[in-house]
Structure formats: C-alpha cells, structure tokens
Write a structure and sequence with these properties.
Length: 505
C-alpha cells in the first residue's frame, strides 16, 4: 500500500526530519494546544511561560520556536477543513471513522487501563519484541553509578539513537546479536543503536563503553557504522554516508561547553556529574545546564520549562544540520519550508509563506524527557507546546483512512517521479507509489495538515473513550498508543525519499 493510495484499514500496529535551529527560546508561551503531557503526578507550582519571539522583529527566531509550529500549521489546516487545499481533497466525513480506528488500536493494547499509556518517545522503541532492554541496561550497571549518571548515559544513548532514526529504507533489516530476532524500520534502528552503544562504538573511553562523547563520534567512520547497522549490498540502509556525516557533525557540536561540558557528552546537559568522583576528575566537570538553569524551579521535584530544554536542542545541535535549507537573512531555519497554502499576497513577507515543523527536535524532546522524568523525577512545564509529529506514520494514517486523497495532477507527477527513480540502481521498483522530494509543496502541505488533524483527533479520541479531565489522554499518549501504530502504510517511507537521498531535516 502506497502513501497516496486508498485501501480498507485493518487494526494493526521515519522521515526523520531534523531541525537546524539557533533561536534562544527562553521566551515562549502557550496558546490553546492540547493539555500538557503528564510526566509527574506531584503537586507542582504553576510556571508562566513568556511570549514567543515577535515575527515582525525577529522572524527567524519566531519560526525556530516550538510555538510557531502549531500556529503556522493552523493556517493550512483551516483550509483543509474547508476542502481548500492545493494538493489534497479532504473528506471530513471520514474524520470520525479515522478517530474510531485510532480508538480501536488504543483499546486493543491498553483497555481498560488507559492511564498506563506511556508518553511517545524512543524508550518504547527499545522494547520492541517485548524485551525491557532499557531496564536490563540499567540493571547491568553497578550500584556505584548513581541516578544522575544513569540518566546522563540514557541521554547519551537516546540522543544518538534518535539522530540515527531516519528512514532506513524498505530493504534494510537488523538481526539482534542478543535475541537473534530481526527488526526493521525505526525499531530496528533502535535495537541496532543500543547494541552499538553497549559495544562502545560511540565512546572514546576504553573502560567506559556506555557513553557517547565527541571524540568517539569523530572516530566513527562509514565502514564502522555499516558494520554496526549490518549494512551490506544485500542489506542496504538508506543514507549510510549521511548518517556517518551526521555523527561526525554531532561530535563537533558536543564541543559546546555551555551545554555539554568539557567531556563533550550529550548527557552533560542534565547537570554536574557526581558519582563520587573527585572534583579534579574530568568527568566531574559537566555543563550544569538544565538542573541549575535560572528558569528551573526547585519544588518537590525539579521543574524545568520545556523552552529551556528546547534551547539546548536548538542551539546546542545547530552545527549538526546542513545549512542548505530555508533561510531568512542568512539564518538557516531547519525543518521549515515554503508552502503555497500559506499567505502569498498582498504582499506577504517571506516569513509568512513558511511552515516550520522541527520534527526531529520535537522527537528528541519527547524522547529525552522520558529518562529524566523516570529516573530523576524531573517535571517539564509547558510540554503542551509540542505538537504531533508530522511524519510518514502519523500522516500516512490520514491517507490510509481516506481523510486525505492526493489530487489527480499531483498523483500523476508523483508516479512519474517514482518511475524515473526506479530506474536507478538500488532503488525500490516493486510497488508503484507517488514520490516527492521533502521540500515538495505536496509534502509540506501534507505535514501541516497532519499537525492540525492530530490535535483534532486527540479531542475526538478522548470523547470516544469517555475520558475527560485528569483522566483524558494527552497528545503524547495518543501518539504512542494510537496514531503512530495505526498507519498501515508499508511504502509510506517513499514519501520522504528522493533519488535515494536520506532526508535529515
């Protein structure tokens, strides 16, 4: 089944597009997004988030903010509800059917204990096949490793794993060295990155294998990464060289001592290392960023505003992303794209035509909050600013259920692109589906309406489940238990591939 084909849906079970952001987001606020994800049940103080950057004064900073994702996508989504999109026909009569299908997936896996649904994040990917791999990893470390260092190590692992989590391609699979089972797609990349982490492939320290540091990443070459991912001519993974380059650039980015300390570890964003080390030991000197940030509140548990974490991911990882993207006044905006469904005249400023998504930065935020919340009991205020992830599984659901249908002219163009791409060596040519580049207006419009429909689905899903108030699912729970599992689209990965290039946006 292709991304833009229609079929009946049965109850069943990415682009990983990274952001290149540089704005300091200590100025963010909420509008009317879904309720905040609950990472702590403690009684916590209210945290006031200030307003986002003013786009008339600093449009680049505004478009790099998390706040802009929902606000700009809403302009396209409002057109979708009136069936006024450029590239898709919208059948709103299928909306309730889509919600009912999502509910059937949630009930299948979690009824009646919906409160047990975890927030969407990388942690669950590591547990594919029913193996509690992260708990097993934690149990393998001696008791002398305290909770801060355990959290720091998981941040190391999760960040690298998420950055490697781009579409692997339909031909790739990974056979676990520990279980002997074979996995594909995002779950396969999760298991592969975990086993590489445990083998010390990302560490430069000969006796501390379970860590990630800048020097270790700079040493990782294409051949080593290929071995780690079990990539061969017969088992090709899309964008192998792009992944190796990304790891090398991450090694450079970790030299930012403000966020990652002198040991250049992602986990140093948490706070100072303790672990009983003498203060002169290099590992003791960390960035001390999140836990000691002026915006962090000392309550019954630490309370960190989401914009503070966002700043680390946006500013700290800015060198990772290619600069050949949408720009304003020389500032690269990352996962943000011009869209013809946005205001064009009379006369629209450049920033008004752009829709930001920052999908991979959001995926990082969702994923990194989980170990910090579980191990350190940290609460993140303002998580309702995060949106549903506009990627091929969530967006594919809207096509699978007939809510969106690609218009004939775009279908013909996409099929011609697939036909031409299939002639290239190593490219898929079995199932014919329309193919578009990541910056194609079809893809940008599709992703924008995905953000809006996920918000609307959350309200409908909670109503169908009879959940309200504190019992209602938050967006992160619906993503985890429902929409991300619900798409049946086998070939939807093709929507984010163009001539075999890995789209790391």
């Amino acid at each position: 089944m292709g991304l833009f084909s229609r079929k009946s849906v049965k109850s069943t079970d990415g682009t990983s597009i990274a952001s290149n952001n540089t704005a300091n987001l200590k100025s963010l606020t909420t509008s009317q997004p879904p309720r905040e994800s609950s990472f702590s049940s403690q009684s916590l103080p209210d945290v006031t988030l200030s307003r986002p950057p003013d786009p008339s004064l600093d449009p680049a900073a505004y478009l790099q903010s998390i706040y802009a994702v929902r606000e700009r996508s809403k302009i396209v989504f409002d057109k979708a509800k009136r069936d006024k999109l450029m590239h898709f026909d919208v059948d709103m009569k299928k909306f309730t059917d889509t919600a009912k299908y999502v509910v059937s997936i949630i009930k299948r896996d979690y009824a009646p204990d919906y409160s047990s649904i975890p927030p969407h994040g990388r942690w669950q990917h590591f547990e594919v096949g029913g193996r509690p791999r992260i708990n097993q990893l934690l149990g393998s470390w001696p008791s002398t490793v305290d909770n801060q260092e355990r959290t720091r190590r998981l941040i190391d692992l999760f960040l690298v794993s998420v950055l490697l989590d781009a579409g692997a391609g339909p031909q790739w699979s990974y056979k676990s060295k520990e279980s002997g089972r074979t996995y594909r797609r995002s779950e396969g990349l999760a298991v592969a990155s975990l086993e590489m982490f445990k083998a010390g492939m990302f560490s430069s320290h000969p006796t501390e294998l379970c860590q990630v540091d800048g020097t270790g990443l700079k040493r990782l070459n294409v051949q080593q990464l290929a071995r780690g991912l079990q990539a061969t001519d017969a088992n090709p993974v899309s964008g192998l060289e792009g992944r190796a380059g990304l790891m090398s650039r991450l090694g450079d980015a970790l030299n930012n001592r403000e966020f990652f300390g002198v040991t250049a570890r992602p986990g140093n964003m948490l706070g100072r290392a303790a672990c009983g080390l003498d203060s002169s030991h290099p590992a003791h000197i960390a960035a001390d960023y999140l836990l000691s940030h002026p915006s962090t509140l000392a309550s019954s548990v630490p309370v960190i505003p989401l914009p503070t974490l966002w700043t680390v991911l946006v500013d700290g990882l800015a060198p990772v992303w290619p600069s050949t993207r949408t720009t304003i006044a020389g500032t690269s905006l990352g996962d943000a794209w011009s869209c013809t469904s946005m205001p064009q005249s009379p006369p629209a400023q450049t920033w008004e035509t752009i829709v930001p998504f920052h999908k991979l930065t959001q995926w990082l935020a969702y994923s990194l909050m989980t170990p910090m919340s579980k191990l350190m009991k940290i609460h993140f205020a303002g998580t309702e600013l995060l949106t549903g992830l506009p990627e091929y599984r969530n967006g594919g659901l809207l096509v699978d259920t007939g809510l969106l249908t690609l218009k004939p002219k775009d279908m013909a163009r996409g099929l011609e692109a697939f036909k031409n791409n299939a002639k290239l060596k190593g490219q898929p040519n079995v199932e014919v589906v329309p193919l578009f580049a990541t910056d194609d207006d079809v893809i940008v419009e599709w992703r924008a309406v995905t953000v809006g429909f996920l918000d609307e689905l959350l309200e409908e899903v909670n109503q169908l489940l009879g959940l309200g108030g504190s019992d209602a699912l938050n967006l992160a729970q619906m993503l985890e238990a429902g929409t991300w599992k619900a798409s049946c689209g086998f070939a939807t990965e093709l929507s984010i591939m163009h001539r075999g290039e890995l789209c790391l946006h």
